[in-house]
Amino acid sequence: MNVLFLCTGNSCRSLISEAVFNHIAPEGLHAISAGSQPIGKLNEKAVALLASKGISTEAYYSKSWNDLPVTPDVVVTVCASAAGDTCPVYLGPILRTHWGVEDPGHVVGTEEEINTAFEKAYATLRARIEAFLALPLEELKGDRELFKAELDRIGLIGA
């Protein structure tokens, strides 16, 4: 199963989601991330945070949803503007959910306040990804409506 984490800029929240998912997911599950309007570079604080958690970002880069290497089975938007975007037609009637997380990359304040915002975003995304991975995915593949309901429920964790 391929999961796409989508955010407008593809530099911070979607990157964190992709890296965490791939770090903890069992074989057969894979995440990618992309943006509807990628900024072309990864957020340095997000990369540093992931490194501090022992999570590699070596092969990751900010990319457009038009350049996906695979067609995802599930699309998870992690920012409000991406949630309102219409997914590219080639994705078809894809299973989609929204897990909104405040963008720590836009926090203005002290270094401590900024670091706290990044830690909060990481903790929220990780908790949601762990909940996703705990789902009976094989069973849910056969019940699209229930799968969507479970994904939407997960989007409320930490909100």
Automatic annotation (TrEMBL):
<dbReference type="InterPro" id="IPR023485">
    <property type="entry name" value="Ptyr_pPase"/>
</dbReference>
<dbReference type="GO" id="GO:0030612">
    <property type="term" value="F:arsenate reductase (thioredoxin) activity"/>
</dbReference>
<protein>
    <submittedName>
        <fullName>Arsenate reductase ArsC</fullName>
        <ecNumber>1.20.4.4</ecNumber>
    </submittedName>
</protein>
<keyword id="KW-0059">Arsenical resistance</keyword>
<feature type="domain" description="Phosphotyrosine protein phosphatase I">
    <location>
        <begin position="1"/>
        <end position="135"/>
    </location>
</feature>
<keyword id="KW-0560">Oxidoreductase</keyword>
<dbReference type="Pfam" id="PF01451">
    <property type="entry name" value="LMWPc"/>
</dbReference>
<dbReference type="InterPro" id="IPR036196">
    <property type="entry name" value="Ptyr_pPase_sf"/>
</dbReference>
